[in-house]
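Session log. Operator J.P. requested a structure for one protein chain; no other inputs attached. Running the standard single-chain path with token output.
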Amino acid sequence: MAFEIHVISKRDLSNHETLAVDLPMPKLAASSVRIRTSIIGITSNNFAYAKLGDMLQWWNTWPVPLNAPAPYSNRDEWGIVPAWGFARVLESTIDAIPPGGLLYGYWPTSSHPVDMKLEPAEPKGHFREISEHRQGLGSIYNHYNLIDESVQSDEFRAWFANVYPVWNGGYVLNRFTYPTEFKPVHPLGHGAGAWTEKDGDLSSAVVDSEVLHLELSSQPQADEWATGSSSGYLRTTDVNAWA
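Structure written below.
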């Protein structure tokens, strides 16, 4: 079955394409789900995921399908940028995740189905992605949770997809990287080594910050952008909205 996929050049982020790819739909493996991106936030974070994708392995999250047409099948040159938001479960071999369910987490900015291998995490209803190609990612990017749709609207989820990752990033840095009562951990995870008080000293640092304006229209419509100066949300039923 053919699906549209959005890819970006890793060497020139202004170069991107939307292409049709015929994807096989094999039988789903055990402990897996097949999902399709539903609502995602588009913010300055997405640019960072692309710009630093090789260094922090963000490009490994959702590799371009190998049966994509040349030259886009070259994973060294082309990638799919990840984004925070919600995805619909198409199929599942995990009892706790029903087909049709909604998951929150880190998704491809594309509309093709993808398979994930998950294991239960804490608290109940949360899961960890354990596919081999994603093990170099920070643990936060492999964490997913099942959503109770009865208590949230699509408009709420659109706002949440944009605002929550920014808030959560600040919380995690404050809670674990610069803690007052607990042993700090390295910002890149336990495998990156020790994080000392000296490493966290910013007294002589030069910080170049960008003001992020999270402005959405008051009535976002399906299949279109609701944009502000640098953010928006996207329903991936129309992948061409990216362009």
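Operator note: Strands lie at 2-9, 16-22, 32-42, 78-79, 82-92, 102-108, 114-121, 126-129, 143-146, 232-235.
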